[in-house]
Design goal:
The chain is of the alpha/beta class. It contains 27 helices and 28 strands. The chain folds into six domains: 138 residues, 3-Layer(aba) Sandwich (Rossmann fold), CATH 3.40.50.2300; 176 residues, 3-Layer(aba) Sandwich (Rossmann fold); 88 residues, D-Maltodextrin-Binding Protein, domain 2 (3-Layer(aba) Sandwich); 121 residues, Periplasmic binding protein-like II (D-Maltodextrin-Binding Protein, domain 2, 3-Layer(aba) Sandwich); 96 residues, no CATH class; 65 residues.
Length: 814
């Protein structure tokens, strides 16, 4: 069609097309190329489709200076330098690996199995790009499966292997004939059913439209990525119409006459070669003209750069369903997914936004992408340690007859809650294991257990055999030592019962009340008079001794008695509170650790203890440098208690969760000392690369964030709570906030007494002044009987009428 169209448009000499079929054999392709050049004198060769054919044909073309136009998927970068007459007319498809990685990320799959042809050299280019793209989205290739061509027995063997594997997401990069065999066998082995995911690359997907009904029926539910080329323009519509008509005439037995990307590529390449041949007949001139081609073809713009077309950046995503396939959407480099292409397209970050996908087996829910790993066909075998020192976390009991086992503890309860949180049913069975924790973890590597649940510490060396969930407990190693009494010799401890503000307020109110009493009583007590210095000393003495030595009958004024009664009431409360708080502080201060730190243990060559079977032994010898002979192992909290009290060991090193239990049970006899040594907490154990691990970790985090784990821990500690435990901060210094009502009461009472007293003083002084003026006036009148009272004297008389009793008394005295 391309050669005919070229002739029709130019009217030049008609070009003759010579066709040879290599049968997919590279050597036969090379012989055919040499025959075409030597016998038919062809000026250019189009059509090697695989790299193996291209490499041999390009060698022949370079020797005879004949341009070789290849449709191989990806030629190496060095190919153009080695064979200068080689031109790649197919676009580089490596970007589709990023599209596949984004599909994997959209559905939150973390591992994929890649199936490719072992003789497909393009895999050397494709696989590294796919691995890098998956790594960018948090996924990885779990297995690589290389299939030999036309080998039915080996195909079945490889399918059986991946059928027993955990991963259920398969990326298929095969030639179309081999892919057809693969899907037919997979359907027979029931691998095209629910929970399986199949993703095909361009070499397969671009030919799906040409597969017969039988092949399509075996590919139901696959997701395919194929090259995109515009099919809406007038140029393609005209080509599509003529292609279908001509194809139906030449192949009436084939009902599928849709042109695909390969037809468009062949048409564009032939047009480019025909245009070049109109100006140059052969050799280097023909090659040079061909490489200068620049026109808009069916598959896009045809322009060569370094003897290659521009790479493909847009891909179409299809979903095989029914008798054909459905166009789901598009993926563009740098833009992501979209339902349409071109102007007005809305970009999406996830394939989920493109609509419902029909999965293998017909489920409408998204496959999780992996199978539950089990050592048998029914349930998950879970190993549980039987030698746990602290039974609150793991406790394995036998009934009296020894026939049945019961599993309990925080770890078991948490695992059950986690399994219930999973979005699918996970059958499992618990099995006891007697031995060290290291050997228990190794059982997973030996395929004896599918997982381990218990108080298993997350230690680096155990990652050689398995992997862990996130820790569900606090991490750290704590040193526990006995406590002993000590003599409290802190010089200023007597100040601790009250805060500084409290002491200042006590002193201020003390001085103020003493001043009020002194001011009121000084006229009645001669010992409170004297020089200024003597009165100041009397005031201070009265402020701090009146409370304890001066009795009520020694006070002469009701005002001072009222002040003293309230102050004595407050002083009684404050002194009793001070005594009680100081006594409590002295009791608490009598306890101190018997060992200060690890260095003290090492200097004294002391014995220390740890839990039997744990990793702590290696940590004590390798990190803290304890001699091996100075380390003892224990099997229960009671053994720890007895050994510490009897001084068999000077300290015990317990993991943080165990230390919390031990101190809750023996809260007054022991205490933690020194820093918390950083080590891993407890976690559940799964095989390396387990597809179950991410789901279990996520479910466990949901349980812990909901507060279920905290509830379990609080319930456990409540049963061990020491009722007479002394907590930090039980005897804080008391502040004025605790006594402000009393301070206001005594201060207010003293102030009232002082105000009333001062008011009476002023009143007495006014009476005194009035009487004195009257006496002077009388004395003057007696000295001059004829003198009349002046207006001023009459004023005095008027004032004297206001206090008749005092005036009478004064006249009586005179």
């Amino acid at each position: 069609m391309a050669l005919d169209d070229h002739f029709d448009s130019t009217g030049n000499q008609r070009l003759v097309l010579h066709v040879r079929n290599s049968q997919g054999k590279p050597s036969q392709a090379a012989l055919a190329a040499k025959g075409l050049i030597d016998e038919q004198k062809v000026q250019a060769i189009l059509g090697p489709h695989t790299w193996e054919e291209t490499s041999l044909v390009a060698e022949v073309g370079s020797e005879t200076h004949t341009p070789i136009v290849s449709f191989a998927e990806a030629n190496p970068k060095w190919a153009a330098e080695l064979w200068p007459f080689l031109v790649q007319a197919s676009r580089n498809q490596l970007k589709q690996m990023e599209a596949i990685a984004d599909i994997v990320q959209s559905w939150e799959w973390h591992q994929v199995t890649v199936i490719y042809g072992d003789r497909d050299s393009s895999a050397n280019e494709v696989l590294p790009h796919l691995s890098d793209a998956l790594r960018q989205v948090g996924a990885e290739i779990s297995h690589l499966v290389a299939l030999p061509p036309f080998a039915s027995s080996s195909l079945i063997t490889e399918l059986e292997k991946i059928q027993n594997d955990q991963c259920r997401v398969f990326v298929v990069h095969l030639s179309a004939p081999l892919a057809v065999q693969l899907f037919e066998k997979a359907k027979e082995m029931k691998m095209m059913e629910k929970d399986y995911v199949w993703i095909t690359t361009d070499p397969i997907t671009s030919l799906v439209h040409s597969f017969n009904a039988s092949t399509i029926s075996s590919m139901q539910g696959i997701i395919g990525v194929k090259s995109y080329f515009p099919e809406s323009g007038n140029q393609f519509k005209d080509f599509d119409h003529r292609f279908r008509k001509r194809f139906s005439m030449e192949h009436p037995e084939d009902g599928n006459n849709e042109p695909g990307i390969f037809a468009a590529q062949a048409y564009d390449a032939a047009r480019a070669v025909a245009q070049a041949m109109t100006e140059s007949s052969k050799g280097r001139k023909l090659l040079a003209k061909l490489l200068r081609s620049d026109f808009h073809g069916l598959s896009g713009r045809i322009k060569f750069n370094d003897q290659k077309l521009a790479p493909q950046h847009v891909f179409q995503i299809i979903n095989v369903n029914g008798k054909s396939y459905r166009e789901v959407g598009y993926w563009s480099d740098g833009l992501g997914f979209s339902e349409t292409i071109g102007e007005g397209a809305t970009n999406r970050s996830s394939m989920r936004d493109l609509g419902q996908v029909f999965w293998p087996g017909g489920p409408w829910y998204t496959p999780k992408g992996w199978a539950v790993p089990t050592t048998n066909a029914n349930v998950l075998r879970i190993g549980v340690p039987t030698g746990a020192t602290f039974k609150q976390y793991v406790n394995v009991k036998k009934d009296p007859l020894g026939n049945n086992l019961s599993f309990s503890g925080i770890a078991i309860d948490l695992f059950k809650a986690t399994v219930n949180e999973l979005p699918y049913h996970l059958p499992y069975e618990l099995f006891p294991f007697e031995g060290t924790y290291d050997s228990l973890v190794k059982q997973i590597h030996l395929h004896k257990f599918d997982a381990v649940v218990g108080d298993v510490a997350i230690v680096s060396r155990r990652y050689e055999h398995a992997e862990f969930t996130h820790p569900y407990t606090e991490s750290g190693l704590i040193m526990i030592v006995p406590v002993r009494s000590k003599t409290c010799n802190k010089a200023w401890l007597f100040m601790k019962p009250f805060t500084k503000a409290m002491w200042a307020l006590i002193g201020a109110i003390n001085v103020y009340n003493g001043f009020v009493v002194w001011l009121i009583e000084r006229n009645y007590c001669p010992e409170l008079k004297g020089s200024v210095l003597n009165q100041i000393g009397s005031l201070i003495w009265l402020s701090f001794t009146t409370l304890f030595s001066l009795q009520g009958d020694k006070l002469h004024s009701n005002f001072s008695r009222m002040t003293m009664v309230v102050w004595l009431f407050m002083a009684l409360i404050i002194t009793q509170t001070y005594t009680a708080n100081l006594a409590s502080m002295l009791t608490v201060q009598q306890l101190e650790p018997t060992v200060a730190d690890v260095d003290a243990l090492l200097r004294t060559n002391a014995m220390v203890g740890y839990c039997k079977g744990s990793f702590v032994s290696a940590y004590l010898t390798e990190v803290l440098r304890f001699p091996h002979n100075n380390i003892m192992q224990f099997n229960s909290t009671e053994e720890y208690d007895l050994a510490l009290r009897s001084k068999v060991i000077a300290a015990a090193f317990l993991e943080a969760p165990f230390a919390k239990i031990f101190l809750a049970k023996y809260c007054k006899a022991f205490m933690p000392v020194g820093p918390t040594f950083k080590v891993g907490g407890f976690g559940f154990v799964f095989p390396k690369g387990s597809m179950l691990l991410p789901s279990v970790t996520e479910a466990m985090l949901k349980v812990t964030e909901r507060g279920d784990l905290r509830t379990l821990e609080n319930s456990m500690l409540a049963s061990l709570k020491c009722l007479d435990a002394e907590t930090d901060g039980a005897n804080p210094s008391l502040s004025p906030n605790s006594f402000w009502v009393l301070f206001v009461l005594t201060g207010g009472t003293s102030t009232i007494a002082l105000v009333v007293y001062i008011f009476n003083i002023r009143k007495s002084i006014l009476v005194y002044k009035t009487n004195w003026k009257l006496i002077l006036d009388v004395m003057k009148r007696w000295g001059n009987p004829n003198r009349r009272f002046s207006r001023r004297d009459s004023d005095i008389n008027e004032e004297s009428h206001a206090y008749p009793s005092n005036a009478s008394a004064l006249q009586a005295q005179v």
